[in-house]
């Protein structure tokens, strides 16, 4: 989707930043995160080009280019879920992947611990404002691999078209990002640290080119893009922000723990249920 900046393409009516349809004629104008981030594109390209020039000076232009190509061709947005949740989600025909804010506000789930709740709501308010409650979080992963296993042992890849229409990316975890840049509520967000889906390879290269040298191999690219060994404190990744709800029809592949590895009887049941359900839907499911 081409992002629309400030005027409705159908009637010319001025758009407010958070609308998804024109208030004058009802024409869909795109996800507000996509519209917000798209205006930084030139700054992102400048940052990317600077890193490419530096890679030439360091003699590793080919390796950096190979990384950029792999991200544009083979990266996906991956969400991580625990087996019980994913099994129940796949079992229900009416399941919708919702957000923490919408669920707590609707009183369908309890709040997290007080400090975690304040952290989530504060971060979303500072980064997204009014549309924050509608953002779902994923991570950018290569080769249909595992995502952030610290958030759930089952990794599920999302359709490219969903991401094209609704996703933007930020170069790291949003809470860490706000702290690193000392951003307070109402402050501007530093430019060129976010990208629309089509530009994810520029953001990944801008962030990671200086970690690539002439000895870096293709086999190292996936871990460079996303590193997770099950501890949220050491996770390194590019965060994906998906605006709006999606259902299991948005799932294209999954990586789940092998049933032999399950520690409890319940997990064995859930994992086997997930495998069977994905199989019936024709969604590839890798067991690791
Ligand atoms: Zn209009």
Seen as an oligomer or otherwise, the chain set is: single chain
Unreliable stretches covering 5 or more consecutive residues: none
Q: How many beta-strand runs? A: 8
Helicity level, as a percent range? 25-40%
N-to-C order of helices and strands:
HHHEHHHEEHEHEHHEEHE
Account of the 3D structure:
Strands 5-4-6-2-1-3-7-8 form an eight-stranded mixed β-sheet, sandwiched between helices. With 288 residues, it is an alpha+beta fold. Strand 7, helix 11 and strand 8 form a beta-alpha-beta unit. The chain folds into two domains: 30 residues, no CATH class; 256 residues, no CATH class. The protein binds zinc ion. The site of zinc ion has 8 residues, from loops.
Strand and helix layout:
Layout: H1 32-38, H2 41-57, H3 61-74, E1 75-81, H4 83-91, H5 100-105, H6 114-128, E2 135-142, E3 154-158, H7 160-166, E4 167-170, H8 174-180, E5 194-196, H9 200-208, H10 221-225, E6 239-243, E7 251-256, H11 265-281, E8 285-287
Parallel strand pairs: 7-8
Antiparallel strand pairs: 1-2, 1-3, 2-6, 3-7, 4-5, 4-6
Helix pairs in contact: 2-3, 2-9, 3-9, 4-11
Bound molecules: zinc ion.
List keywords for this structure.
globular; alpha+beta; 8-stranded mixed β-sheet; binds zinc ion; about 290 residues
